[in-house]
Design a protein that fits this description.
Radius of gyration: 44 Å
Structural class: mainly alpha
Strand order of the largest sheet: 1-2
Largest sheet: 2 strands, antiparallel
Oligomer: single chain
Shape: flat
Helix content: 55-70%
């Protein structure tokens, strides 16, 4: 080894005293105080040893300069810099720095030489070793710099070269090396620093000249901090800093307190153009995640006056850092818009960086900053992560919410800031931040705020709208002013949409929007005593642009709708936590139940309250008043026909108000209110967008009002007023391509239709059906049979023209038969889908003619044409028509719920099913198919009854051949279609038609009986059938006559012809459903007993099938046995005075017992064994000649119901040799031959369960225990 200053380099710990060695271990302590004490003690000890050291000769010529202990200590400290043990690096660096500072004899060059020898990265070092060595070098340079010693130029160059070399070698050490470099530059003289910046070998010049697209965040950090020290030539060449601008002072980032030193530099750096240049660099700062990169405190020191570029990054992430100065106009907005907002659309690391920057900037925000900072991207990311606790950034979002509330608490003296924060948060998710995030953030911000507190904020926004932006930015032109006005409008609307805001504030905002959306004020012609909102409009100079007025109109309608709904619904409780959600749901359910149980008068009052629209009434009256004011005119003069329509709507509204004042009550009052509501909305829509309005709607509405309430008889050639109303609603719902919110108009149309639903005529309802039935553009009129219906089985469901059967029972067995079946399927498809009407062969045209509209009237065809022409291409046209269909289906849903017994519904089924089959085709609209399916499933609770229509029209349910055709079509779709939506909807429709087939006298029609027989035959015998058992259970539950007269005999008929054990299990379940039908009150127990007595033999036969037959071979044997046991138990209940032997017959019981013995011999599964034992017990116990009810009475105890001995085997059907049941049989693994005897304890344990709940399964559990 090489000697160090004459001292042997091989000196070891044995050559050093204990007093030195004891400090080294504590240098690696995780406790900072312990490390500091150890470093101080070590340096003091070494300093004392060096002071006592006397130079001596080593060898012949070399003289030692340092004591051996000092040499050992220096080498060990340098090697400790590369140690990864706990806090070794920090402790050894601290000791090395103190050693240099306290021992003048120790030179920096000696330390650098030791570092070069001890921390050299050899070519054979692996990755972790190289990492430790390089990190040790950085700590060594930092120790030298922080020692406080003067660094001459050569030493400074050596340190700079070493640090840049490390940064270039390992990117993860780049930020650390850059920070150490900054500490180095702060201690150098100007000449030395300039030399380092200009010298190529140091590497700093190369870094600073790196293009912005390729630079790292550390390079930008160095450029900013060295901005004031850079030579002019270098400053001119770098692209990281703006050129031709005064640089900040050299000590600005460290000691300067005067923001004027960097005002020009900050303005140039935070311009949008320069921020776009350095945007890639700023994005890359997320590499330090989860720690905030040291570049950002430097940037904030330049942006925010008084902010310190502190070295403690944790302190930089605190809202208390620095003074609460504010950025110059436009600079913070530019930083957020260009840089920070971009982070929220990127990776999780960059989103986390965005949240960190938000928490730092929050205390420095002013009111005008909030609309920019709370942008759509930030709110979306913030809300999503705050709502879901499982997201990676949930804790970051929670921290942001806490900082927002904390800031509001600190600014209680400024209600405007609290309100502005709440308004900014309300800009997400339909004005429901607290509801979405399940927090109380907005509620806390708005607590204790009243109208007096909110008025200054609203007035400030209105002044900002009228006077425009006072920004001094270069882009402050007319376009920028209009943008600022639109932002003010958004803020006002978000604030007014909060439910707790007083009504006076909401009304003021609505009037402000109405004035600036619709009117122009002439100051010269305006007189005194005019509304203050009109006078305030004079301050809007220059006048708002057409785009801004359109925004005001759209926000007026949206806010009016929101305020109206909030006024109609009572204020709910404060948002609750997720733990309380279940209680809240229960409370809401109780409220709904109470409302449903309320008296008719109360329900009527509640419905009337919902139709009351105080805000809408006041605003419409205000608009009408302002329009009549002298000196006020509309922004654009209305066409003559639209002006006449507006006047007619106002006259009709006044007439309706007179009707209400005259004492209209009940249903009529609801109808009048709903019509008035639509008239008021139409007035606003006409003023907002005259071009999209329909002038003839006003006259038609007036005619409807006269026809509905004045009872004037229309002329013979005039349509019924209800048909006219349906046409009006269709034309309004066909509105498309509108910049205005459509929701309020749609809801007004639905409210009006709901009020008059009971008076809809057959022609009006047919109009609705025609719209829904309209096939999608480009869809073929005829579908391929193979596309619509399954072809994987041999059998078919086809009609027979000769005998009138709905289902052909013939089955093909060969290829020719299959082809015939396919042809029959095709014929049935044509009948089932009600072969479409003739249409144009040109499916590629975008325009629709009358044939394609199914001969619709002019209004419906016009509505569809408007929807189709609203889009710029074919796709948008299809979407517009689909939207129109959704709106019309909303009306149909209202009608089905309001008039479930209407005879019109049955006739509409074929068209709706045809529309569903078309929507379910491949490539069709899946959303439309889902909506149609939901609509058809509403028929499950309907039951058409022949009754006079409220419109006076005689409408009856289809009967005879028409009903037979309907049943045939729906049954075919329910049994053969591939799509589950179609089969389930068709099954529901089939059951509905059967309920409609019961006559007023309570008799069944022949068509219904034939259809049920055909359905059962198809269900039991056809492999292709997609019918489900639930269909027949529903028929049993709702149609007593059908179940007794048709279903039960048909089930008996197919006892032996069912195609599989699976279907026979369904037959057992259907029998059980029939026997239990007396529980629901649909059948009496006597009628069930009488009907079943004629077919009682079917139950033992199916029981045998469940034990040893085809059912036993299926996976449903256990379920079938349960149903069999429950059926026998049900027989005991419906025949209480007879024994089971008398009801079923001794011979039948013996057959079942024999099958049980056979099933036991097959060693079934444990669950099946339990059911076999249960069935054996039932048959052996209840076959006594004494009725079961008398057994219980005579015994007076449970002994009569006592189960057989647990060791007793199944009852023998015939005498046989003992012990032959299991002879020659090998018991399954884990099961003994006496398995039934082992199962008996479980059965005995559940004895009472069998008695009380005969239909329930035995307790499920572990396999039977073995002896």
């Amino acid at each position: 080894m090489k000697a160090v200053n004459g001292v042997d380099a091989n000196i070891s710990a044995r050559d050093v005293g204990e007093q030195v060695l004891k400090f080294f271990w504590d240098l690696a302590s995780l406790n900072e105080d312990a490390r500091a004490a150890a470093a101080a003690g070590l340096v003091a000890e070494l300093k004392g040893i060096q002071a006592e050291f006397s130079p001596s000769s080593v060898g012949s010529k070399q003289q030692a300069t340092y004591a051996p202990s000092l040499v050992y200590g220096l080498k060990r400290l340098v090697r400790g810099l590369a140690s990864g043990r706990q806090g070794a690096r920090q402790g050894n660096a601290l000791a090395l720095s103190k050693l240099l500072a306290d021992i003048p004899a120790l030179s920096i060059n000696e330390v650098l030489a030791t570092m070069a020898s001890e921390l050299e990265v050899s070519g054979q070092a692996n990755g972790s070793e190289a990492h430790d060595q390089l990190l040790g070098q950085v700590f060594g340079y930092a120790a030298i710099i922080r020692s406080g010693l003067h660094l001459d130029q050569p030493t400074a160059v050596t340190c700079a070269e070493g640090l840049t070399h490390i940064a270039n070698k390992k990117s993860f050490l780049r930020e650390l090396a850059a920070n150490v470099l900054l500490e180095l530059t702060e201690q150098l003289e100007d000449t030395t620093l300039t030399h380092i910046l200009e010298q190529e070998s140091c590497g700093l010049k190369e870094w600073l000249l790196t293009p912005a697209a390729d630079a790292s965040p550390e390079v930008l950090l160095l450029a900013l901090r060295l901005w004031g020290s850079m030579p002019f030539t270098l400053l001119k060449q770098t692209s990281l800093l703006p050129s031709n601008v005064q640089s900040p002072s050299t000590d600005f980032f460290t000691v300067s307190d005067t923001p004027k030193d960097a005002a020009a530099a900050a303005a140039a750096f935070f311009s949008e153009q320069h921020l776009q240049t350095v945007l890639p660099v700023l994005r890359g700062s997320s590499s330090s995640h989860p720690r905030l990169h040291s570049l950002w405190p430097t940037l904030f020191a330049l942006l925010l006056p008084g902010f310190k570029a502190v070295k403690d990054l944790n302190a930089a992430d605190s809202s208390e850092t620095g003074s609460k100065g504010t950025a110059a106009a436009g600079q913070l907005e530019a930083l957020w818009t260009v840089v920070v907002q971009d982070l929220f659309t990127s990776s999780h690391e960059r989103k986390a960086l965005g949240f960190q920057l938000f928490t730092i900037l929050l205390p420095f925000l002013r009111l005008e900053h909030l609309p920019v900072v709370f942008s759509a991207h930030f709110l979306r990311c913030f809300t999503n992560n705050l709502t879901n606790s499982k997201t990676y950034l949930h804790s970051s979002a929670q921290r942001c919410a806490q900082r927002i509330v904390a800031l509001a608490d600190k600014t209680k003296a400024s209600p405007s800031m609290q309100t502005a924060l709440a308004v900014a948060l309300q800009g997400v998710g339909g004005h429901g931040f607290d509801k979405l995030t399940k927090t109380t953030t907005v509620a806390k911000l708005l607590q204790n705020l009243d109208a007096a507190s909110l008025e200054p904020y609203v007035q400030r926004l209105q002044d900002h709208f009228c006077k425009g932006s006072k920004s001094d930015r270069d882009s402050a032109d007319d376009q920028e002013m209009e943008k600022a006005r639109q932002v003010a409008v958004e803020q006002m609307c978000n604030m007014a949409a909060i439910r707790t805001v007083p009504a006076s504030i909401k009304t003021g905002v609505l009037k402000f929007l109405a004035v600036h959306a619709f009117f122009v004020v002439d100051k010269a012609a305006l007189g005194k005593g005019k509304p203050k909102e009109v006078k305030a409009a004079l301050q809007a100079q220059p006048p708002p642009s057409a785009a801004t007025r359109q925004v005001c109109a759209a926000r007026l309608i949206a806010l009016l709708d929101c305020a109206t709904k909030a006024a109609q619904a009572p204020l709910g409780p404060a948002p609750v936590s997720t733990k309380k959600q279940s209680k809240t749901k229960k409370r809401k359910a109780a409220e709904l139940a109470a409302e449903a149980a309320a008296p008719a008068a109360t329900a009527e009052a509640m419905q009337a309250a919902r139709l009351e629209t105080p805000f809408l009434t006041e605003i419409v009256a205000f608009v009408s008043k302002v329009q009549r004011t002298a000196g006020v005119s509309l922004t654009a003069e209305l066409p003559e026909e639209m002006d006449a329509a507006l006047s007619q709507l106002r006259e009709s509204e006044a007439l309706a108000a007179t009707k209400l004042a005259a004492g209209a009550t009940g249903v009529q009052a609801q109808q009048v209110r709903s019509m008035v509501g639509l008239m008021r909305w139409l007035q606003l829509y006409i003023l907002s967008d005259p071009a999209a309005a329909q002038p003839d709607v006003a006259a038609d509405l007036q005619g409807v009002f006269n026809g509905a309430f004045t009872k004037t008889k229309p002329a013979a050639d005039e349509p019924h007023w209800m048909d006219v109303l349906v046409d009006i609603l269709l034309s309004l719902l066909g509105r498309s391509g509108d910049a205005l919110p459509f929701g309020p108009l749609r809801e007004a149309c639905e409210a009006l239709f709901r009020a008059f639903a009971e008076q809809v005529t057959s022609e009006g309802f047919a109009d609705l059906v025609r719209v829904v039935q309209q096939p999608p553009e480009g869809q073929a009129d005829e579908e391929d049979d193979e596309d619509l219906f399954g072809d994987d089985e041999e059998d078919t469901l086809a009609g027979s023209a000769e005998d009138g059967d709905i289902v052909d029972a013939a089955e093909g067995t060969d290829a020719d038969s299959d082809e015939d079946d396919d042809e029959a399927d095709g014929t049935a498809v044509d009948a089932a889908l009600n072969a479409k009407e003739e249409s144009s062969d040109s499916n590629d045209e975008e325009d629709f003619d009358d044939d394609q509209m199914f001969k619709m009237d002019d209004k419906i065809a016009a509505a569809l044409r408007v929807m189709a022409s609203g889009g710029a291409n074919a796709r948008e046209s299809r979407e517009a028509i689909a939207t129109f269909k959704f709106r019309v289906m909303g009306l149909m849903e209202i009608y089905i719920k309001k008039v479930p017994s209407s005879p019109l519904l049955a006739a509409a089924l074929p068209a709706l099913l045809g529309a569903l089959t078309g929507a379910c085709q491949q490539g069709a609209d899946a959303a439309l198919a889902k909506r149609l399916h939901v609509l058809l499933m509403l028929f499950a609770k309907g039951h058409a009854q022949p009754a006079p229509s409220a419109s006076g029209e005689a409408v009856s349910v289809p009967d005879g051949e028409a009903m037979a055709v309907l049943l045939k079509r729906t049954l075919y779709l329910a049994s053969r279609h591939k799509d589950k939506k179609v089969t389930s909807a068709a099954s529901t429709a089939f059951a509905y038609l059967l309920r409609c087939s019961i006559t007023a006298e309570g008799n069944l029609t022949g068509e219904a009986t034939t259809a049920v027989k055909a359905a059962l035959d198809d269900f039991f015998t056809k492999k292709k059938s997609k019918l489900h058992r639930k269909l027949f259970e529903d028929i049993m539950a709702r149609c007593a006559l059908l179940s007794a007269a048709t279903l039960l005999p048909a089930i008996v008929q197919h006892e032996h012809t069912a195609r599989s054990g699976h279907v026979k299990a369904d037959a057992i379940a259907l029998l059980l459903a029939f026997l239990r039908s007396s529980k629901g009150g649909l059948h009496s127990a006597d009628s069930v007993a009488e009907a079943f007595r004629r077919h009682v033999s079917v139950l033992p036969g199916l029981a045998v099938e469940a034990t040893t037959g085809s059912v036993a071979q299926s996976a449903r044997q256990n379920e079938a046995l349960k149903d069999t046991c429950a059926s026998f138990e049900q027989l005991v209940k419906i025949y209480p005075t007879e024994s089971l032997q008398d009801v079923v017959g001794q011979h039948q019981i013996q057959l079942v017992l024999a099958s049980l013995q056979q099933a036991e011999a097959a060693a079934p599964k444990p669950k099946v064994q339990v059911q076999l034992k249960r069935l054996a017990h039932l048959l052996s116990e209840k076959t006594s000649t004494v009725p079961f009810s008398q057994q219980v009475k005579s015994s007076g105890s449970k002994k009569a119901n006592k189960k057989p001995n647990v060791d007793q085997s199944l009852p023998d059907a015939q005498p046989k040799a003992k012990g032959k049941v299991h002879k020659g049989k090998k018991a399954p693994k884990g099961q003994s031959k006496s398995s039934l005897a082992q199962a008996a304890p479980k059965i005995a344990k559940n004895r009472d369960k069998y008695k009380k709940k005969g239909n329930k399964d035995t307790k499920k559990g572990k396999p039977f225990a073995q002896n």
